Amino acid sequence: MKLNKYLLLGLLICLPVNAFHEGKLSCLYSRWCRNNVELIKNINHVEEQFPNNNYDNIANEFNNLINNLKRFRVKVFLADKKYFSKKTIGIYNIKNNNIYLNKKYMHDELQLIRTLRHEAWHVAQDCKTGIRSGGLGMILNQKYISEVVDYERGAIIASRKKGMAEAALESCYTNDDKYIQDFLSF
């Protein structure tokens, strides 16, 4: 019995600092967590959650992104803040190909559209390696820019440029870079 206690204590000491955070996310990833996790089919579903907010400025782009993501069988969910670490606003899971948006931050239309653009960019990166492959490919590369841009940097750039994530998805879906080329000349 004492040996079991020491083994358990040893495991607890060796767990990574973010294990609690990973536990929260694994709940979403496995779809065990269904309480306050809503499937978003269009901007109307977001407006229902925040009836006092106006999303007219982003409605068309938001709905276009959602429709593009559907072509890859990627679902977008609005989830309660309890499933995220304090600073996580959204996440794309490459294992189940779902996007989860932290409801705490989605009342702001700019935050909502930037987060969806960012996560949609990760879907396009995933598409580059073969969707459902479990990996991310580079979209921004030496052919278009002189410095190396990592996975997150590309997503950050796409989050700030209207149409960039949508163009990346279209390029990947059609296997033709003509849709994204205009965005890649910095």
Question: Your description of this structure?
Answer:
The protein is α+β, with helices and mostly antiparallel strands. Helix content is 46%, strand content 10%. It is built from seven helices and four strands, in the order ααβααβββααα. A hairpin with a 4-residue loop joins β3 (90-93) and β4. The N and C termini lie far apart (63 Å).
Give a quick rundown of the structure.
The chain is of the alpha+beta class and 186 residues long. It has one domain.
Keywords:
186 residues; alpha+beta; 46% helix; 10% strand; globular
Q: Would you list the SSEs in sequence order as H and E?
A: HHEHHEEEHHH
Approximately how much beta-strand content do the residues carry?
Answer: 5-15%
Biggest sheet layout: 4 strands, mixed
**Percent helix range:** 40-55%
Average per-residue pLDDT, rounded, comes to 77
Number of helices: 7
Structural class: alpha+beta
Read across the widest sheet, the strand sequence of neighbours is 1-2-4-3
Structural domain count: 1
Shape: globular
Strand runs, count: 4
Distance between the termini: 63 Å
Gyration radius, in Å:
18 Å
* pLDDT < 50 runs, ≥5 residues: 1-22, 140-148
